[in-house]
Amino acid sequence: MTKKKPKIKSKNFSLDIDALNIKRHSYLLVIMTTYSHSRISTFEQCKLKFKYHYIDKVKTEIEKSVELFLGDLVHRTLEKLYKDLKFQKLNSKEEILSFFNDLWKKEWTDDIVIVREGLTQENYCKMGEKYISDYYEHYKPFNETKIIGLETQDLMKLSDGNKYHIRIDRLEVDGTTYYVTDYKTNNTMKDQNEADSDKQLAMYSIWVKNNFSDAKKVVLKWHMLAFDKEVTSERTEAQLQQLQNDIVAKIEDIESCKDFPPKKSALCGWCEFKPICPEWKHQYELEKKTEQEFKDDDGVKLVDEFSKLKAEENAIQKKLEILRDRIMSFAEKEGASAVFGTEQKAKIWSKEVYKFPKTTDMNYQDFVDMIKKIGLWNEFSRLDSFKLEKSFGNNEFYEEIEEILRRFAKKEKVERIYLGKK
Ligand code: SF4
Fold first, then answer.
1. Which segments of 27-176 are extended strands (E)?
2. Does the beta carbon of 223 lie inside 6 Å of ligand 1?
3. Alpha-carbon 196 to chain mean position
4. Strands 163-174 and 34-35: what pairing?
5. 90, 84 in Cβ contact below 8 A?
């Protein structure tokens, strides 16, 4: 594990570490890991998924989603098209489609998951045929540039010593301009902004520049097969440097991460760990139950009871507010400051109070500046513990500051139940 990169430091912060008796970090045995776009993006998507996949190496019964299967076969079909061209063999469209269909028949297995309702493997197979057919018609006879790499793989060394796995679908050259093509089988069209900010494409650019000294220009291309369109992008040297720094910082985040919470998103539908993920495992178990078993499930019964009582509580809350307003009106009309019932009385308390600007008010900052100027800040300001706890929990402080704060921090378990629609 590498040393974590600190991010927040106090302004004008200066410490005598020895005087504070803070333990200096001893040397650690550094084990270098190979990173890849999918390893980093899995961490960004969901830390728990990252843990299951890369740390615990959990094997799941679900092997593949149909989208992955389709993408893999389309890639291999286009690879064959270009590989054969190297041997001066131009496959006809029928030949290349037949190659794709044969692969499909041979490799399709019933455990491949189709998440979208109402679709079958035939729908996906036809989609693949269309992608390949459109591509073929658009680019035949495929001789515009010189191809120098197909499904190229390499490990690129990063400045922190870690390695980054590069895999390029197709690499071409025309003079000193290099073209990197990445085939995409996504169902939504990617736009220019996405291409210009995509880290994986930019990493390709760094790899090309590192490996081909004559590369004056690197054009990065996404070929969006579902739309038969290309989205191209280029990067400046400054952007590439910034990206390398960002990647190294992200790797430091990954290596210092100790907490791997689940992060629910639309992508959970494609996550192979859904059956064991705490966010979904109960629902997953319920799906396997009969109607009666579902009704008898302790979890179902408890949540149904809880939500019923919560609804009653909310209704009572609303009724209480209405009653409160009516008692106030009654008291005002009668000129009374107490209204009497059978057992209890309702005492009306009312007073005019002063209010100063709140954080959300426009003049809040002017107000704070003035309070500081007139010397009242220390006496009347309060520490924002909530913000501090959040930043501390997210490891956002410099290590030295974190060590100091840790002396006062106490770990407590906070538990809440939020009801929501399924
Ligand atoms: S199902 Fe969703 S929340 Fe659970 S591990 Fe997978 S991506 Fe994360």
1. 34-35, 146-157, 163-174
2. no
3. 18
4. parallel
5. yes
Ligand 1 in reach of 183 Cβ (< 6 A): no
Q: Say whether pLDDT at 7 is over 50.
A: no
How many angstroms is it from 276 CA to the middle of ligand 1? 9
Reported as a single tens digit per residue, the pLDDT across 333-352 is: 999 999 999 999 999 998 99
CB atoms within 10 A of CB 262: 18
Neighbours of 258 (CB within 10 A): 6
CA distance 36 to 30: 19
> How many CB atoms within 10 Å of residue 201?
24
- Residue 273 in contact with residue 61, Cβ under 8 Å? no
Tokens of 213: 């000294």
The Cα 293–Cα 285 span in angstroms is 11
* Ligand 1 center–CA 268 separation, angstroms: 5
In short, whether 53's Cβ falls inside 6 Å of ligand 1 is no
Ligand 1: which atom is nearest the Cα of residue 46?
Answer: 8
- Owner of token pair 């791997």: 260
Tens-digit pLDDT profile for residues 164-210: 999 999 999 999 999 999 999 999 999 999 999 999 999 999 999 99
DSSP assignment letter at 65 = B
Q: How confident is the model at residue 318 (pLDDT cuts 50, 70, 90)?
A: very high
Q: Which atom of ligand 1 is nearest to the CA of 277?
A: 4
Q: Are strands 177-184 and 146-157 parallel, antiparallel or unpaired?
A: unpaired
What sections of 7-152 are H helices per DSSP?
A: 37-45, 47-50, 66-86, 93-107, 121-139
- Return the exposure string of 382-414: e unless at least 16 CB atoms fall within 10 Å of the residue's CB, then b: eeeeeeeeebbeebebbebbbbeeeeeeeeeee
CA of 182 to the centre of ligand 1 (A): 26
Q: Are 128 and 122 in contact (CB under 8 A)?
A: no
Bridge partners, 224 (sequence order): 184, 229
Task: Give the count of alpha carbons within 13 A of 411, CB side only.
Answer: 2
Which phi-psi region, left, alpha or beta, contains residue 57 (left: φ > 0; alpha: ψ -120 to 50)?
Answer: left
Ligand 1 atom with minimal separation from the 267 CA: 7
Tokens linked to 68? 């992955």
395: CB partners within 8 A, 6+ apart:
4, 256, 402
Please state the domain extents for the chain. Answer: 1-31+358-410, 62-140, 296-347
DSSP 56: S
CA distance 25 to 14: 18
Residue 196 near residue 233, CB atoms below 8 Å: yes
